[in-house]
Specification:
- The protein has 3 domains: 3-94, Arc Repressor Mutant, subunit A (Orthogonal Bundle), CATH 1.10.10; 123-221, Beta-Lactamase (2-Layer Sandwich); 227-446, P-loop containing nucleotide triphosphate hydrolases (Rossmann fold), CATH 3.40.50.300.
- The chain has 15 helices and 23 strands.
- The chain has helices at 3-16, 25-33, 43-48, 68-78, 86-94, 124-131, 133-138, 174-183, 230-233, 252-263, 286-289, 303-313, 327-338, 351-355, 414-422; strands at 22-24, 53-56, 61-64, 109-114, 119-121, 146-152, 156-161, 164-171, 197-198, 205-211, 214-221, 225-227, 242-246, 269-272, 293-295, 318-321, 342-348, 368-371, 383-386, 395-402, 405-411, 427-435, 438-446.
- The strands form 5 sheets. It has a 10-stranded mixed β-sheet with strand order 4-23-22-21-20-13-17-16-14-15, with helices on both faces. Strands 8-7-6-11-10-9 form a 6-stranded antiparallel β-sheet, with no helix packed on it.
- It is globular, with a radius of gyration of 27 Å.
- The two termini are 28 Å apart.
- One of its GO terms (molecular function) is ATP binding.
- This is AAA+ ATPase domain-containing protein.
- It comes from Entomortierella chlamydospora.
Amino acid sequence: MDNKTASAVKAAAKECFVDRNTVAVSLFIKALQTRNVVTKNKLTRIIESTDYLALANHNNVVKLTKNTFAEQAEQVMQAKPTPLPKMAAKSFRNTIAPSVVVNPPPPPVTITRATLPLSVNCDTDAIVDVLGDIAIEHLDLEDTGVTDIFIDVGSSMSVKVNGQCVQRDKVIEHPDVAMILQNLPGGGPTVKQSNRVIFGQTLHRLAAVMYDGIITGVTIRVGRSVSGLLPLFEGLVEQKNVLLCGAPNVGKTTTLREICKYLSRGKCLCLIDTSGEVCGDAGNKDHIVGTSRVFRPVDPDNQYATLLDCVRNHSPDVIAIDELNTKGEVDVCQTIALRSIQMVASVHGNIQDLVFNPMLNKALGGSTQALVSDRNAVDGRKVVVQRTSRPIFDLVINIKRTSEGLEYAFIEDVAENVSRIMQGKPIQTRTRRIVGEELIETTEEVLYPHEC
């Protein structure tokens, strides 16, 4: 990197790191481009050539590793002055970089308290009944990390364990798939519009892989009910509209079951279980969702109609729904919330994905681009993304899988925090997880990637 580029990079860093030590990559790129620095396919090399910058958070964030600007200014000020001509001394003073004070984020605050260990219930016998020798010889169903089984004709069977796909040495043939379908309760699948079939009285789900109208494979989601999650959300979900976010297969439905069991105490809770994954095909089970009343829409594509029916005819105090999928369903949720009925729902995707999802982000207040004055510009940008309304949900629980297990990030004051995500600013989260017989709670600032 030549001296001219190095000076431009340093100037851009001074601009971006005035009151923080992290900044979104997109903002740093804009600061470089305003100084005529070519960044296309070169940003990583530019950052690595400095001794004060680094990429973090999956290359979505630029981090200031040391306050080199302040150090340089301090060294110059402490150096012994050399007699200079009057005009030269004035010029020298003007070249001293101003000291930049970087306020580090507050350190995480961790609280630990005792709790009961989690209890996991899984009907593994039902999977063995369907898969037969395939399960006996090639699967360890006692491993709670097993979440999905992938079976395709002509390929080796694979299993998702703790988020990673692991190949088994069993090559699937057409008779294997035919046997699996025949072993399903009822003698074969009734492929619904949602292409999901629940195993009889269990929580396991089977989906067919279709090729030219022929079933050539299946995906089996291993369903488990988990007891003991109550300490995670106790004291946070009462009297609030709650939205569960997270990637597929991180435990949103499992968490929804426990919240329904908790909130149904002394209240009328109507649960919309469109696919049957929450309660299984047997309908309501007290040990799974408490006294919740369970509704199953005839047409999964008209899930919103069942939501409206609950409001009009069944006097609910709380309505819960697993998987918001369409803008129409979000609109109905807003109608329900305006009637002082508590809402609990889940949605695929993390909070930052939902904030910029035009189909579903109305749940968090929607978004629009706005032209603002110089005074209100965000990091020099006069075209900014803003919320269009108040969020429907008062609390977002962002669930993710880590090396230490599942982690639940509780995001309160949703309106303020969604605005901060749109601006590329860190937000305050309360993170909880259960490890053994301990509930660990950490309060910290988290910077989510954002779009510009």
